[in-house]
Amino acid sequence: MKKITLLAAAFAFSFGAVAQTVVIDRPADSTQGLISSNGDNDAGVFCAELIELDSDVVLGTIAVEGFSSTGLALEPSMSGLDFFIYEDDGDVPASNPSFAGEALVDLPGIAVGGGGFDFFDDGAGGVPNNFRINVTAANGGTQVTLPAGNYWVVVAPAGAGDSAGDVRWNWLGNLGSPSSVEPYLIDTDDLFGAGATNWTNIAGLIGEAFPALNVTVTDEALGLGDNDLTGVAVYPNPAQDVLNVTLPSNVEVNSATLIDVLGKTTGASLENGQMNIADLAAGVYILNLDTNLGSFSQKVIKQ
């Protein structure tokens, strides 16, 4: 019974290539998909797919393929696209979309037509219910950098009607190149009666193998300002407590800011060539200097 309500099959699909440097390439190679949707008239049902990053990545685009249960385009019924990235907590997402603001990348309701995401064709003449999220644009123009590690991606269209009806989107599976941990589904209000009110292994839920959901992640160049200044040194990097900044004698600093991967200012200040970062969480930050001779930016890793 669970298989009938939660699992669906698509008629035709193929994977469309995207530009930039691909760091995760997990194509849709199954005709089966799992619901991941957020209706206006009820709580959402969400799927989560693991991405494993071997090095720091400046997120470019994240593309996923799926299909609507009606066989029609979802766009007329959509008010937006929910997009979250969660930290990994023992091979399970650290939180879920029912808790606002707890995602590492928390972007609910990305507007249709606003540039934060676009629809792309499946290449087989089907209705384009595939989404390509431009992470920088969706995040208000600020790049998002993920340090090396494991993360969970959640994508779900939001809109008019019920999550099981007009905006029901089914995220296509992947059989050939899964991650080390199988995907999860959560249905916090138990809309489908499967008892998946916490993150639940999909294969166990539907009673058959479901190794992964499709996802493609690209990396883009980290824009770090002019960096025309010579003789500027930032050390140690990685750093634990104090970041040292040395400047040529003819350089005067107008302002110095240290921002996190989501573009938020940390509040750390530069005093006498030193910046105290002891109280910051471990991760990747960007140091921006505005000087009398131009701008300078440097990626900094806090251990």
TrEMBL record:
<feature type="signal peptide">
    <location>
        <begin position="1"/>
        <end position="19"/>
    </location>
</feature>
<protein>
    <recommendedName>
        <fullName>Secretion system C-terminal sorting domain-containing protein</fullName>
    </recommendedName>
</protein>
<feature type="domain" description="Secretion system C-terminal sorting">
    <location>
        <begin position="234"/>
        <end position="301"/>
    </location>
</feature>
<keyword id="KW-0732">Signal</keyword>
<dbReference type="Pfam" id="PF18962">
    <property type="entry name" value="Por_Secre_tail"/>
</dbReference>
<dbReference type="InterPro" id="IPR026444">
    <property type="entry name" value="Secre_tail"/>
</dbReference>
